[in-house]
C-alpha cells in the first residue's frame, strides 16, 4: 500500500508553504485544507494569517495582538483557526475522495486543542494528508512524526521546485 500521510519539514523559509500552495493548485478541487502566510508591513514581518483553500482568511498571530497567548513576539488567537478547522472537518465528514493539506503543524497552531484533535483525525482518515511540521521538539509533533503511516520529507532548495509534482504523483496512486 502507498504511504498516505506525508510530512514536510525543513528550516524556516526553505519553501514548505510554497510546496503546499503549488501542490494545491496541481490537485485542484480535490484539495482541501489551509496554509499560513506571513503578514508584512514593508520589510518587517508583523504576523501570520490562515488561508483556507476555500478562500477564507483570518489573522492567527500579530505583533499588535494583546493576547495572553504568545509565541515569540506574536500574540496568538487560536480561535482564528475556526474556518480552517471547519473546512477540513466538513471534508472528512463527506467521504468524497480528496486530499487534505495542512500548513502547518507548528507552535502557534498547536496551542489549539481542536487543531491537534483534527490533525490526528485527518491522519487516521482514509484520505491522504500532506502537512508541514515544525522541525524542533514538541510532544504532539513528535508523536505525529513517530506514526508508522507517515513519511517525513525534508524540503531543501534542491528539491522544493519538483516536490509538488512528485507528491502529486504519489497522491494520485493513493486512490
Structure explained in plain terms:
This protein is an alpha/beta fold. It has one domain: Rossmann fold, CATH 3.40.50. Helices cover 31% and strands 30% of the residues. The protein contains 5 helices and 9 strands; from the N terminus they run βαβββββαβαβαβα. It has helices at 16-27, 82-94, 113-124, 139-146, 163-172, and strands spanning 5-9, 31-41, 44-52, 57-62, 70-71, 74-76, 99-105, 129-133, 150-154. It has a 9-stranded mixed β-sheet, sandwiched between helices. α1 crosses α5 (163-172) and α2 runs parallel beside α3 (113-124). The longest helix is centred in the middle third of the chain and has 13 residues, at 82-94. It is globular.
* Count of distinct structural domains: 1
User: Could you report the average pLDDT, rounded to the nearest whole number?
Assistant: 94
**CATH first level:** Alpha Beta
Strand fraction:
25-35%
Query: What is the CATH superfamily?
Result: P-loop containing nucleotide triphosphate hydrolases
Biggest sheet character: 9 strands, mixed
The CATH topology turns out to be Rossmann fold
Are there runs of 5+ residues with pLDDT below 50, and where? none
Helix content: 25-40%
**Class by SSE composition:** alpha/beta
- Helix-strand string: EHEEEEEHEHEHEH
Strand ordering within the main sheet: 5-6-4-3-2-7-8-1-9
Give the distance, in angstroms, between the N- and C-terminal Cα atoms.
Answer: 11 Å
Please count the helical segments. Answer: 5
Gyration radius from CA atoms, angstroms: 15 Å
Label the CATH architecture: 3-Layer(aba) Sandwich
Number of strands: 9
**Outline type:** globular
